[in-house]
Design a protein that fits this description.
By secondary structure, the chain is an alpha/beta fold. The protein contains 14 helices and 13 strands. The protein has two domains: 76 residues, no CATH class; 344 residues, TIM Barrel, CATH 3.20.20. Helix content is 36%, strand content 11%. β7, α8 and β8 form a beta-alpha-beta unit.
């Protein structure tokens, strides 16, 4: 059995010191590094880069001839076999990619066109993504996010999903979700869907379905035909895993029996509800998952002491904290005005170690990128790569801070050389090196592009 995060496998995490409330000994961190310091020793000579460029141009020609075949998947070795998935919000739009700023960057009163003296755009969050506000449909983003996850030892994502209809921004969320799948399959990452059952009510309100049950049936049919068919759809003990946030509106066993009746018997998934909600689903529920709550660790203690005894799928839930922008952004009347401090990473370590017990079948990290609620572990200006390093320590991968930086460098180089076909072809080569876990060569190819293009 793997124990909690310990100092024996410690990587240089971006913080000063963290004490693990749930472990036998503290995780001690020796140095705090700024983003500018990372990779400062990765300086290549002109001759070295010219040699790499000449080689890569030959490789591109060989690729055109079909003499170099791309590998499939990115087989990251983890010392810790526990599966780790991150909850993912595919709901962002940016002006440079989509032509407008989406509501999750603006809420009701923020304007990302306003840029402060530090170069930061005004967004609806107390935190700022390291790459700035982005579009969920941007393929450069997909590459960046999922390479980051792989290098941290993350096994896949759980998409927050709002149904199959083009209603409000739900159609955009569905579309963005589906743009991710090809990259995830290419990198060998699993994914699952977390259904929001309120969308069925909205479909009826907008006369897009005759009943809430019919609307949910249509959504489940779409999930079955579009997502369950992917070879990378998340499975637990050979069953597809489907989550529901709640349910809040379809709340009886009889109703869920009708919803599930549209699925082939062989495709009945493991269906996981929010904790304390399985009675609304009856035997259709095979497990429950914990979420961020004001009582914080008390909720964890209750969940892990009670739920596994019911022979249900048990999901370990980890998060870095909670600091909602909803009231400040005009989306709430104060209902979310409670906080869980990040405490320089201690909160994440506490909750991650709770989930490390044998009773957790797998882990859901809450979240990758919910900037509105302040639960993101995605690299930000405020904490850099801190949470990815902690996951690296937990999963036991061999990668380091500098390896994460290479992925960030690739993203920036993609953006700096937009419209340059040759530069992008070389950066495609860099992506393939990273996928093949040849980080050194991938970094050199990025340096070639930045030097000569």
């Amino acid at each position: 059995m793997y124990g909690p995060i310990r100092k024996t496998r410690l990587l240089p995490v971006i913080m000063t010191m963290i004490f693990l409330a749930c472990s036998e000994e503290p995780l001690r961190v020796v140095k705090e590094l700024s983003v500018e310091e990372i990779g400062a020793d990765s300086v290549y000579s002109e001759a070295e880069l010219q040699s790499v460029l000449d080689e890569e141009l030959r490789f591109l020609e060989l690729e055109k001839q079909g003499r170099i075949v791309d590998i499939s998947g990115m087989n990251v070795i983890k010392e810790n076999p526990k599966k780790v998935y991150v909850h993912y919000m595919p709901w962002f739009q940016s002006k440079d990619y989509d032509g407008y700023w989406g509501q999750h960057w603006t809420m009701t009163n923020q304007n990302p066109d306003i840029i402060d003296v530090n170069g930061k755009r005004q967004i609806a969050s107390y935190y700022y993504p390291l790459i700035g506000p982005y579009s969920s449909s941007d393929p450069d983003l997909h590459e960046y996010h999922f390479l980051m996850m792989k290098l941290a030892g993350v096994d896949g994502v759980i998409f927050d999903w709002y149904g199959s209809r083009d209603l409000y921004d739900y159609g955009l969320i569905k579309q963005s979700t589906e743009t991710f799948i090809a990259v995830m399959e290419d990198l060998g990452m699993d994914f699952s869907i977390m259904y929001e059952d309120r969308v069925a009510v909205h479909a009826v309100d907008q006369q897009l379905a005759d009943s809430v049950i019919q609307a949910a049936q249509q959504d489940f049919t779409y999930i079955d035909q579009t997502y369950f068919t992917s070879p990378r759809y998340l499975k637990h003990e050979n069953n597809n895993v489907l989550f529901v946030f709640g349910p809040e509106h379809i709340t009886t066993e009889a109703e869920w029996n009708q919803v599930f009746s549209v699925l082939p018997v062989q495709n009945r998934p493991d269906f996981l509800t929010l904790w304390a909600a399985k009675d609304r689903v009856g035997p259709n529920a095979t497990g429950e998952f914990l979420w961020v709550a004001p009582d914080h660790l008390l909720a964890h203690q209750h969940y892990y002491s009670i739920y596994p005894q019911n022979n249900m799928v048990t999901v370990g839930s980890s998060y870095p904290g909670f600091h909602s922008f909803y009231t400040a952004g005009g989306w709430s009347d104060g209902a979310h005005e409670w906080t869980i401090p990040k405490d320089s990473g201690q909160t994440f370590v506490e909750t991650l170690n709770y989930t490390h017990q044998e009773i957790a079948d797998f882990i859901q990290v809450i979240t990758w990128n919910d900037f509105g609620e302040g639960t993101m572990i995605e690299p930000t200006e405020e904490f850099g790569f801190r949470y990815l390093q902690l996951i690296q320590e937990y999963t036991g991968v061999a990668y380091t801070l500098n390896d994460l930086q290479v992925t960030l460098d690739l993203y920036h180089s993609r953006k700096n050389h937009q419209g340059n076909a040759m530069a992008q072809a070389l950066l495609d080569r860099s992506y393939k090196y990273l996928k093949d876990q040849n980080l050194s060569r991938g970094s050199k190819v990025i340096a070639v592009v930045d030097r000569f293009f």
